[in-house]
Amino acid sequence: MSTPVPERISKYEISAVLGQGAMGVVYKGFDPHIRRPVAIKTIHKNLLGDPEANAQQDSIAARFRNEAQAVGRIAHPGVVAIYEFGEDEHCAYIAMEFVEGRNLEQLLLDSPLLDQPWLLHLMDQLLDALGAAHAQGICHRDIKPANLLLTTGGQLKLTDFGIARIADLNLTQVASTIGTPGYMAPEQYIGDELDHRADLFACGALLYRLLSGRPAFSGTPERVMYQVLNEHPTPPSQVDGVTRTPALDDVVARALAKHPDDRYPNAQAMRQALAVAGAAGGAGGAGDATVILPLAMRPAVSAVATGAPGTLLTPPTGWDPQVLSRIERALASHVGPMAKLMVRDAARHCADFGSLATAVSQHIAEEGQRARFLDQVEARPAGTHASAARASHPASAVSAAQPQAAQTGTPVPTASPPLTDDFRARALQALSRQLGPIAKVVVKRAAERAGGDQARFVQALVDGVDGVDRAALERELGL
Question: Which of the listed residues 120, 186, 244, 274 has the most CB atoms within 10 Å of its CB?
């Protein structure tokens, strides 16, 4: 029986059911004040008022409140943002960021083995987000593929902090045996005191699955518990049918250490170890069984290798290899060894230096670092135009003298109004709804390229980064 869809919950307009269970429903909604889509996670209000349920430390109601309280303390692009916690006459709800995409569990069911550079990039994003949570005293305690969302642009976002432990809030601490078998650390099973290193154990189990295509620990819940407490899985590089960089075995082994003191001291340390191990193996190492970037992630990395490992690293025709190398070196200081793959892939779809720099800058999560990267590569040498990219991607290859609509194919009128500060401010507001914080950088670059011409400015916004909906942008700008 389908769940009736309410017209609204509080101020939020409801349009669809995203998921449901015995305790509540998750809806797709819309915030009419800020004009953005949201996900509305609800719990039946009678559960919040059930004295017997509230007496249980791990009740669903306590976990629901815990999620809002935990995530509210984290500000990081790799964590699904929570906008509001509230109640109406029917339910309590959390309004959170709506993520277009699917979770990692769904992706792995279709493609059990990802290309090594990209699985390392996913782990790098996860550890960066976890580092931000741990810095706030928050231990997630349920890291697993189903709790990792992948946007259509390939960004990983951590969600479901329902059983998170907050170090300084006794109210929200839940029993240590809550978790997912196969990703729970030994101390979670035996009831010892937990800290952030339990999350690093789960990251080790996740990394093992990504590298080998199979769980580190499997079987009945009792068998999994015995393995976690007593056994060590076969190193990923030694799993039959899979070729991986042997240096990654040591990272997995340390993350899966039975005692917390033998694991990495923090997420950043594991992140650095992964970068070093990944660099030791180069960009390949995935073997013939690898599936590179399934559909849920392809918009951000649209050049999918179908041949032998290393296909993506061939310099794109029409680009000066020295120019690409310079951008790669600058990007590597922010994202590590995956920089080369990211730059060479983006170069296949960018028509000029400015759009290439802006496109690859999206891989830098922190806005200030992203701006510094763009400033660093701005002083570029002459001759950086990619003629081949223009030929194969006419939507991006529009000359400054004759801008043309990238998505509609409609020529831009030659007589264009001048670009005003008001128009630029409206463009920033409109583009922020599509791109988030990177919109500020895109607008700045577009204004520099436009030379005071409004039509060229709009075209530069569209060309500046993948994923801009030109029709929606023009509607918001009144064009």
Answer: 120
